[in-house]
Every structure is written in structure tokens, then in C-alpha cells.
């Protein structure tokens, strides 16, 4: 079998255009070329503060989001991480191979620990070992993610190398697959990546209606347009324009920026309409899927079986090589 592709997303709420432009739009494209596995990493999401009563709904909602975005269960395997105990089991074996010093270097761990000071749990610390297990169980060729995940993918390769050196060649090194827009910035603080943890006004959700997007964009940070230097916020708006508009329109605004007479309110109003229009089919499909829970549950059950067939094989190979099979 040709080598597959694998990626994962945490079920923490609505998808935003950063998730879409950095990862999910790529997943939709890649499923035409590769055998793809996409997992909802609910076990990872437990390392952040959460409400147990909301979690199952968030998991289902993320499955629906991916289907509505164009992930086709005929082409891709969509599954829930916690439904395959193989992931947690391999994560433990990998944890025994991962130097603490490597984990201490992870910027996501440092950022999250700074944000959730009351809840710096051990799961947050060994999070990358679980991510390495998610990935290597499927022996993929590449992993399509946003730029913030590159460090975790390097650690995955470190673990693969360590495993191979100690127990014999088992895993190929994986390649990160980035889009042209691997890092979309926050609207209100363009020095930070767009992330729902910053607050709803920092992000544009794929489900946001045009009025909501207009309001959020109207507050987005830009510059006076007079210095000739493009600020981070303006660059981010141009990135969005390049993704949702036509080359002619992009040139028009670039020219206006250069001439120093750009009207940001005009650009933002147009951009809001373009984004809302782009995601109209997504919103429609999402509403349909919400009325069809049986279908969604069926996709999840099929995904679980397909993923398990592969994950269980790799785990058996790992256990044999580590000396656990008696
Ligand atoms: P998460 O919601 O953190 O599980 O992220 C899901 C995927 O979206 C990962 O591949 C991230 O790298 C990607 N992603 C998240 N935020 C952004 C962003 N602001 N720009 C680009 N990609 C992103
Ligand atoms: N850590 C990733 C994120 O925050 C989510 C993730 C977990 C993942 N397991 C993965 C991504 C495996 C790619 C492959 O976005």
C-alpha cells in the first residue's frame, strides 16, 4: 500500500479560518491523492481546562465540521482518538524513549503552561508523545498541519529515530506538509497566531455570518497606510484577501496601499462578504449533517474499524520489537 497521510485536530469548539487555511483546506485536497487518516484528538484536548458535559458535543461537532468542510468518508478515514486504545498505549511506550529535556523545549507546552497556571498537568507535558503515537501508528508519508505544529513533528521524528536505533528500523521519518498560509494571525493582536484561546473577537469562525465577520473585521488592527511599511495586521488582511478574492482585486488594494490612499473600511467590507460567501456551502452542509446524526455516527464507526486495522498491526510490531510479546 502507498504511504498514507495523517493529521489531527482537537475538539475544542468551532473551526476558524486559521484551521482552514493552515490545515483543513489542505486535507480536503490531499484526500484525492493519498490514503488519508484524520483524527479528532479528544485525549489531547483533555490537557486544557474543559467542561465534561460539553466534551462529547464538541467531538461530534468537530466531526460534522470536517465533513461539512469537504472531508469525504469515501476517500478518507475519519476517527476519534480515544476510541482506539492503541494511541494511548503507544504513547506510553514512546514516553519511555523521550528525554524530559526534549519535552521541556516545546513552545506549545511553555505557552499553555503560562496560560493555565492552575492546571499544568502531566498530560500537557507528555502531549507530544501522544501526538507522535497518533502519527507513527499509521506510518504516514506526511502530516499536513499549520506552522505551530512543526516542533511537534520534529519531536515525532526524534522519537522515530530513537525507536529505530534501539529496536531496529521500524519507522520512516515523516514530512510536514504546509500550505502557502501556514500561520494566520489574530485580528486584534496580529503578533499572535489566530487562536480561539485568545477570545472570539480574535478569530473568524467558518460558521460566522456576514454581519458577524463585518463586525470582527471592522475592529481588526491595520495601519495608517502612510508609512509605506506594511504592518503585521495589514499583511494578515492581504493574506486573507489573496485567499478569498481575485488577483485583480488584490492588485487593486496593493496599488492603493502603495499610493497611500487605501480605504481599509472598504477592503474589510469586501473581505467580509467574500469570506461569508466562500463558506456558504459549508454552513449549508453543516446544517444538513446536524439533522442526520445516524449518518455521522456511522462515519465514526466505520472510521474506527478502518483505523484500528492498521493501528493494531503497528502496535503489535512495536511490542514484539520491545520484547513484550511472550
Ligand atoms: P488545533 O485546533 O490546535 O487542533 O489545530 C488544528 C490545525 O490547525 C493544526 O494543524 C494547526 O497547526 C492549524 N492551525 C491552528 N491555528 C492556525 C493558524 N492561526 N494559522 C494556521 N494554521 C493553524
Ligand atoms: N497538536 C495538534 C494541534 O494542536 C493536534 C494533533 C494531535 C495532531 N495529534 C496530531 C496534529 C497528529 C497532527 C498529527 O493542532
UniProtKB/TrEMBL annotation:
Its EC number is 6.1.1.2. One of its GO terms (cellular component) is cytosol. The keyword Electron transport does not apply. It is found in: Cytoplasm. PROSITE patterns: AA_TRNA_LIGASE_I (PS00178). It comes from the Bacteria. One of its GO terms (biological process) is tryptophanyl-tRNA aminoacylation. Pfam families: tRNA-synt_1b. It is an enzyme of class 6 (ligase). A motif ('HIGH' region) lies at residues 11-19. GO terms for molecular function: ATP binding; tryptophan-tRNA ligase activity. It catalyses: tRNA(Trp) + L-tryptophan + ATP = L-tryptophyl-tRNA(Trp) + AMP + diphosphate + H(+). L-tryptophan binds at residue 134. Keywords: Aminoacyl-tRNA synthetase, ATP-binding, Cytoplasm, Ligase, Nucleotide-binding, Protein biosynthesis. Coiled coil: none annotated. A motif ('KMSKS' region) lies at residues 193-197. ATP binds at residues 10-12, 18-19, 146-148, 184, 193-197. Homodimer. Belongs to the class-I aminoacyl-tRNA synthetase family. PANTHER family: TRYPTOPHAN--TRNA LIGASE, MITOCHONDRIAL. Catalyzes the attachment of tryptophan to tRNA(Trp). HAMAP family: Trp_tRNA_synth_B. This is Tryptophan--tRNA ligase. The gene is trpS.
Amino acid at each position: 500500500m502507498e504511504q498514507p497521510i495523517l493529521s489531527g485536530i482537537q475538539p475544542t469548539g468551532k473551526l476558524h479560518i486559521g484551521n482552514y487555511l493552515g490545515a483543513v483546506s489542505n486535507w480536503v485536497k490531499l484526500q484525492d491523492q493519498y490514503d488519508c487518516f484524520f483524527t479528532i484528538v479528544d485525549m489531547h484536548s483533555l490537557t486544557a481546562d474543559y467542561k465534561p458535559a460539553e466534551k462529547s458535543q464538541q467531538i461530534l461537532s468537530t466531526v460534522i465540521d470536517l465533513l461539512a468542510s469537504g472531508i469525504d468518508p469515501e476517500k478518507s478515514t475519519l476517527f476519534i482518538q480515544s476510541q482506539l486504545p492503541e494511541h494511548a498505549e503507544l504513547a506510553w511506550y514512546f514516553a519511555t524513549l523521550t528525554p524530559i529535556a526534549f519535552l521541556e523545549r516545546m513552545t506549545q507546552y511553555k505557552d499553555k503552561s503560562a496560560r493555565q497556571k492552575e492546571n499544568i498537568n502531566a498530560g500537557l507535558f507528555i502531549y507530544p508523545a501522544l501526538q507522535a503515537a497518533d502519527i507513527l501508528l499509521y506510518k504516514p508519508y506526511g502530516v499536513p498541519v499549520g506552522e505551530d505544529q512543526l516542533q511537534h513533528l520534529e519531536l515525532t521524528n526524534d522519537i522515530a529515530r530513537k525507536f529505530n536505533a534501539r529496536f531496529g528500523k521500524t519507522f520512516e521519518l515523516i514530512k510536514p506538509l504546509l500550505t502557502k498560509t501556514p500561520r494566520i494571525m489574530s485580528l486584534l493582536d496580529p503578533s499572535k497566531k489566530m487562536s480561539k484561546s485568545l477570545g472570539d473577537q480574535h478569530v473568524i469562525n467558518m460558521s460566522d455570518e456576514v454581519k458577524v465577520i463585518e463586525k470582527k473585521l471592522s475592529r481588526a488592527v491595520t495601519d495608517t497606510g502612510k508609512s509605506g511599511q506594511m504592518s503585521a495586521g495589514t499583511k494578515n488582511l492581504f493574506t486573507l484577501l489573496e485567499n478569498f478574492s481575485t488577483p485583480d482585486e488584490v492588485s487593486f488594494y496593493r496599488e492603493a496601499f502603495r499610493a497611500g490612499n487605501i480605504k481599509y473600511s472598504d477592503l474589510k467590507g469586501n473581505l467580509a462578504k467574500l469570506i461569508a460567501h466562500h463558506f456558504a456551502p459549508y454552513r449549508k452542509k453543516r446544517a444538513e449533517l446536524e439533522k442526520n446524526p445516524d449518518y455521522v455516527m456511522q462515519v465514526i464507526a466505520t472510521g474506527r474499524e478502518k483505523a484500528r486495522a492498521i493501528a493494531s498491526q503497528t502496535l503489535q510490531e512495536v511490542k514484539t520489537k520491545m520484547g513484550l510479546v511472550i
